[in-house]
Amino acid sequence: xxxxxxxxxxxxxxxxxxxxxxxxxxxxxxxxxxxxxxxxxxxxxxxxxxxxxxxxxxxxxxxxxxxxxxxxxxxxxxxxxxxxxxxxxxxxxxxxxxxxxxxxxxxxxxxxxxxxxxxxxxxxxxxxxxxxxxxxxxxxxxxxxxxxxxxxxxxxxxxxxxxxxxxxxxxxxxxxxxxxxxxxxxxxxxxxxxxxxxxxxxxxxxxxxxxxxxxxxxxxxxxxxxxxxxxxxxxxxxxxxxxxxxxxxxxxxxxxxxxxxxxxxxxxxxxxxxxxxxxxxxxxxxxxxxxxxxxxxxxxxxxxxxxxxxxxxxxxxxxxxxxxxxxxxxxxxxxxxxxxxxxxxxxxxxxxxxxxxxxxxxxxxxxxxxxxxxxxxxxxxxxxxxxxxxxxxxxxxxxxxxxxxxxxxxxxxxxxxxxxxxxxxxxxxxxxxxxxxxxxxxxxxxxxxxxxxxxxxxxxxxxxxxxxxxxxxxxxxxxxxxxxxxxxxxxxxxxxxxxxxxxxxxxxxxxxxxxxxxxxxxxxxxxxxxxxxxxxxxxxxxxxxxxxxxxxxxxxxxxxxxxxxxxxxxxxxxxxxxxxxxxxxxxxxxxxxxxxxxxxxxxxxxxxxxxxxxxxxxxxxxxxxxxxxxxxxxxxxxxxxxxxxxxxxxxxxxxxxxxx
Length: 660
Fold this sequence. Notes:
The protein is built from 29 helices and 17 strands. The strands form 3 sheets. Strands 2-3-1-9-8-10 form a 6-stranded antiparallel beta sheet. The chain has a 6-stranded antiparallel beta sheet with strand order 4-5-6-7-11-12, with helices on one face. By secondary structure, it is α+β, with helices and mostly antiparallel strands. The two termini are 34 Å apart. It has a domain at 2-234: Aminohydrolase, N-terminal nucleophile (Ntn) domain (Glutamine Phosphoribosylpyrophosphate, subunit 1, domain 1, 4-Layer Sandwich), CATH 3.60.20.10.
């Protein structure tokens, strides 16, 4: 893993003088590169073709081929192509062998060299379609004077780009773009409204006007005198439709064998490294399956890492410890105290570079810091919920819709009123009478969310309610109009009639790349740690979409098939427990150790002077949370993370000032 950046100046010369005034090509791309130094602490490289207006920068985290032969930017053997690349190509040994058989000779052992030579030999489109890995890269063709930007199929690695003031700017994170003198974009209020709903800015938007995230599975080509052209080489929606149209007809045992073989190959490929390697272990199904398959392939104990909490209902450290003991891993854990959060929160705007408000960012940062002390590469279990229907909302949402769809709208509204008549705390107390193993976490909040969805006119509207923090962000963001993306696409219901598969697809195309993978990328790369995701090998993804729903959800439980693979290696009793996710007790912390920090950011004077939000709405939400009337932690965290982010970057002398 690494970071890269660069720019291409238009032929009209508008940006050339700004670059010259700022010190020239090397100085400008060097400053862009410095902004992402955390992504590559092992070295840097710069390359420029000034007559063509092209410059590339690269920060290196050395994982494979640690010698200078792995340095970037890297030229192809014929000198035509120059690449700056972030990621890992797991099938590069096979590709290398094929290229060598065709007469190519290699200088080093890096996957970067294989990638650039594959593009030179086969063309970019054909080469990219043959890759198994996680990647984002920029490729400059010196003969065609064409720039190509590429992002991996599932969106594991980030890539931003913009065209401003006569320059096309690109990089692994927005902070690199902001270091260029041509960058003048202000904040996008429409994107802010979308962020307020989802807790992240959905692609292709970013928080900055005109700055785009290249979406997963896309190739962007920029040629002189033409508008950028975007093509799709792999698309999760197409994979989903193809898989559902061609389901596997395998027995349970055959399907389990097939999945285990695929996952074992993916895990084995991703254990390739010339540096120390470990894994994140929560004790849940996904991470436990990954660690179990690692342990089977390793001739030494796998290094595993987890964090826990003292607050009841959030701590998974004991479960992780039990799995680690069974698998014989070399296990390290950290118990998170409020002081850890207090120490981490001020740095989140720097780490996340855009407003980002999935509160599990805090434990993700902490476990990344813990892990980096011992290893440079960590495998993660991300993706299992989306692929194998593991989220509670799949079972819950489908069940609720089936029951409520036949009911008259008036009856639904009455039921909602009855639920809302009891405060969330009252429902929590009532469910507290149940045995601990059968007691859901935060039942009051979930029931009040149910009340909010009872009036949904169709299932996709119900899904939107389930994934929304603010249901009407346009009413909260001054001057904002939320862009309507895939989750409003009415055509999707025709292509994928089943509600559960449709929810899986929507999560895979939006929540997974824009929240889960962005969260892990920023947290891990913030400490120079490479995080790999074996479950998101695109071959596993394509297989999962062919697995019938009956082998994903069974007996009221998701991830059935993945569980069968895991139970071959870990006893069932060590895994079976209520799903909690990677959550943190933000609700209690906001009423306790984080209260003063939050009050400063949410003060009426601050909200009014900064001008982004309607102060009355935010203050009412804050007051309600403090009183315990309702748990508004997620809605408030969205606002707090934006407020903290704007203040951080307004103070930063290393970046362009924010403009409204």
